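ok trying this again, last paste got cut off
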Amino acid sequence: MTAGFGLEKLGILTARYPRATLLIIAATLPLFLFFAARLEFNSDIREIFRSQSEGFAVLEEVTRQYPGAGRDILLVVEGENVFEAKALNALRFLHLDLSLSPDVKYVMSIFSARYPPDAEGNAQSLFPPQITADTDLQKLRKEVLAHPLIAGKLLSSDSKLTLIVIALSDKERGVTELDKILTDVNDTASSILKGSGLRFSATGLAALRVEIIGALIRDQSRFALAGLVLCLGLSWFFFRRWAYVAMAGAPAAVAVVWLAGAMAMIGQDVNVLTNIIPVLVVVIVFSDALHLLFGIRQNIAAGMELDEAIETGVHEVGPACVLTSATTTLALLSLALVPHDFISRFGLTAALGTAIAYVATMALVPAMSALLLARTPRKRAAEEGEYWFGAMAAAVSRAAARAIQAHPGAIAATGILITLVAGSLYAQNEPRYSYQENLPEGNAAFEAIKKIDAHLGGANSLRVMIQFPKGHKLQSDKTLAIVGKVHAILEEEPNFRSVTSLYSVERWMKEGGQARDDVFRFLEKANSPLSSRLASRQNNSVLLTAQIPTIESDVLIPVLDSLDEKLDVLAAANPGVEFKVTGLTPLSARASTEMIGKLNQSLALAIGVIIVLIGLAMRSVTFGLASIAPNLLPIATAGTFLYFYGHGLQFTSVVAFTIAFGIAVDSTIHVLNRYKLARAKTNDVDAAIGETLKAIGPVLIVATIILISGVAVTVISELPMVRLYGQISSVVLLTALVGAMVFLPAILSLTDKWLLARSRTAPKKASKKARKKVARGVR
């Protein structure tokens, strides 16, 4: 059995029946296009961290009891001075107009501010009914800035920025409906604020969902167009024949259609991570297609008949293509071991894409070759028709061969040293993550978040839900006493800039001479929208919310650990009372750190399994061991890139390591496959190295350029995590080329020469057959 386990025979079959193959494939396209048109996009950031963990269960429970915040639209309004009569009147009109929308439950703004209630429980508005030039705006400004429910939450200290919170009605909405509501909000704000000297921008999770979907849709079109144009252009640049370009491009187009249709069939939507799978499929197809086409062209140049050239090419290159697909699939399947649906489903879908890429390539390239190359001249010099790029790639390959033949020990030692040094730098990368790295940059919603971070309490929130046991009277002094203690704990932390709770209301009411007992009565009488965000009588719980700016996970986690310790002390003093800390920011900090640890484990497993598979498929322990260091080099180098650029270790980067490793190891396999063929013809190790690099070097260079060009299109994405994937993948692929063309052959040269020398000095009683096996390099 071959290294491809016989699966490469699909190419021989399709080459014998090319027209039937093309008809069958063409017949499948309408069905897959039908489903591809129904492929959905997902912009819910929470889905990234969905798992069976207690942390995610707490987030869902708190969201169920207090659903409001996740549906808010935040309108950031700014100007030179919000506290001017014209600006304030426009803002009041905007507040009232937005409140009338059927989709809006309530609106909170500076106009929600009230004086503390009087003895009758009536709380008058801080703002007078009419705001004119005679209104004492300076006094009004000071009163608003002193209000504990407004200062730092809805108005900046310099009065240049204010926040309007638009709470949508309790209803789940799709992105299309949210987009329409946002359009209406923007139109209303634009109309009312025109001429007031105020500017506005909308943000919040609802707005960000719409922005993410828009970015994903734009990415899909950009990636598909840019990837195909680059890959097709480079294919033409290398082959200089449109027939070869068509044979490389058609399988890629078919594979993308099959993938999109298959994703819709299995219910996998497009999110910020699955967004890159079409690019992955395209580059895999082009890489394998290039190796097949290069082999077929060489056979034709050697004078073979077309059928023989195709069949020989499939026999020689096909097993390596099968093995590369298998190793890439295994690397991606290792992601399925991570206990987070977002990662595991991506791994399964990407593995499906790799299988689709192999079938499309092995079915279409031989079949199209049989039809499109029928008029190709049967005999020509191998170098005839080569353009400067092909000649340059061949010259680089020959130079690499000469260097390896002259200094294999120095090259191998240098490679090992670089791998060790780079590996040590990789190990120094600390887990670091902020969920905002999943958000599209450069748009109004993202810029508004930065403004909230800079001028208010922060766009992110940490929520502490206090769950009281059954039988506890929520409207009691004990409830307020516990809330006051938790509130104080949160205010002690410098990273928590603004805390809102029942204690905030109690403190505000005390300014008006009200007692603690009056807090719940006032909230009931006032029927304030704020009360639904502070307590739930139905669930016997209360909620505290701390606003925090954007903080990296490595900074936030120690803060969360300290908070947990303090709340544990409080829980011990109040048996039966549960304190649950949650929110998207704290969940993402801890979940991403856990993800990174699991991803590192799955990557290590993938590397180990793939190296073993290489040894088994090649039937050579030597090949398996020789491939270890060259395959670790790209991962270590990419880790060094992260270290020096200060990115830290994010789950995106470890996913990129896994994907890129699965692709990069393809070069190793093709070199080993060619070297094995060359060693079967000669005992001269240097000659085998030269023949290997002459045969495989140019196509490896072109394939790597195409792979890097394909994944590099992701750097034009609006999503930072997608751009990071492209950067890391490019580093891994480039380093893998050096490892496969220089480092690996040097190790093979050293080990084979050592084994040959050992076989010559072995006792004569060793069997002739055994010595022959060693001499042939079949170990």
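PB: full thing came through this time. Residues 378-386, 774-779 have pLDDT under 50 and may be disordered.
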